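Reviewers asked in the last cycle whether our approach scales beyond single polypeptides. To address this, we selected a multi-component target totalling 221 residues and predicted its structure end to end. The input consisted of the following lines:
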Amino acid sequence: KAGVTQTPRYLIKTRGQQVTLSCSPISGHRSVSWYQQTPGQGLQFLFEYFSETQRNKGNFPGRFSGRQFSNSRSEMNVSTLELGDSALYLCASSLTGTDSPLHFGNGTRLTVT
Amino acid sequence: AQRVTQPEKLLSVFKGAPVELKCNYSYSGSPELFWYVQYSRQRLQLLLRHISRESIKGFTADLNKGETSFHLKKPFAQEEDSAMYYCALRGAGNMLTFGGGTRLMVKP
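The resulting structure, written as structure tokens, was:
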């Protein structure tokens, strides 16, 4: 089975712009979660989607949003980018979410200048 | 609130020595604990979960609810064990709370 695929691998954006990141889960997985990884804050939960519905949300401002499509693929959007949004954004998928382990993608490294 | 603490940012041992990576958690309910590992230039991957009670690559971890700990142990470290290790807790919902990570360096 193919693993979790995230595109693009690298992005460079300017402050004030917006960005969309994409995640394709493992086939058959219906839950997709997003995490932000930074040297200062470590790995922090952004949100989780299951069957096209946001099921859990972390403590991030409304500039961070996401969605999930009927094929379980997910996108994450960050609007009005700030320098502090520079991070590695990880996507993880799991079968059902609540009692199955998470499988992570390689991440998208976002640099905001 | 749920919290995971890994007190050591770096742990350096010699090959063949025992390894213990510490993890302490704070959670009012019944937690599910995981260890994830990230080898150089590879994705974060699940090493083991407490409910499986299995040994992966020689590593074991026991959940101690009294001490709220989930330390990762291996009796004899190998050079290929060098990696970043993250302890994580899943409480309510499917949100994982990660510790800050411990970098394990196994010297020859």
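Chain B has a mean pLDDT of 92. We regard this as preliminary and will revisit it once experimental data from Aim 1 are available.
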